[in-house]
Amino acid sequence: MPLDTKISDLRNRISLCTMQDVVEEGGVMTLARIEIATVWAAIYAQPHLPSFISPYGYAIKENADRRTHLITVRYKVDLDLTSAAWVYEVRRKSPPRWYKVLGFYDNENWIVMHCHLVQRSERATPPQSKLAAEVSRI
Questions:
Q1: How many C-beta atoms lie closer than 10 Å to residue 85's C-beta?
Q2: Which of 32, 67, 64 shows the shortest CA–CA distance to 46?
Q3: Which of 21, 50, 112, 130 could form a disulfide bond with 2, CB atoms 3.0-4.6 angstroms apart?
Q4: Are 16 and 35 a contacting pair, CB within 8 Å?
């Protein structure tokens, strides 16, 4: 579990993201999850708190503030987790997943995030990269 994490436990590649308002053409505002960092993590499911996933890939029948997973990453000074934090995980044999970060704590060399599984689906939209092409306004 998170209290005795070792480097060898970091088997999952995740993207730490933030939610931002994006104003598109015509003044339409949308929410976008922007990738901030890609790191290795250890993801621990909470076996006594199962999730129910709808056919569309979204978590249902549960409180959105309920912790379903603990995600542990190495402590980095340049990571600043806020209430707008999200985690995106891509797996090899199962659909991508989105987790909402509910809170976190520092544990010596680790950051342990309390997360809620929001979506598990092949249709899960990957985060937008800061390096993505943008429309020129010339």
A1: 22
A2: 67
A3: 112
A4: yes
**Residue 136 structure tokens:** 């020129």
pTM of the complete model:
0.78
Domain map (residue ranges) of the chain: 8-120
**Residue whose C-alpha is closest to residue 129's, from 2, 8, 10, 20:** 20
Gap between the Cα atoms of 121 and 100, Å rounded: 15
Q: How far apart are CA 96 and CA 3, in angstroms?
A: 26
> For the domain 8-120, what is the CATH superfamily, name and number?
Bacteriophage SPP1 head-tail adaptor protein (2.40.10.270)
Residue-wise pLDDT for 89-116, tens only, equals 988 888 888 899 999 998 788 999 999 8
DSSP secondary structure letters along 32-93: EEEEEEEEEEEEEE-TTS--EE-TTSBEESS-TTS--EEEEEE--TT----TTEEEEE--SS
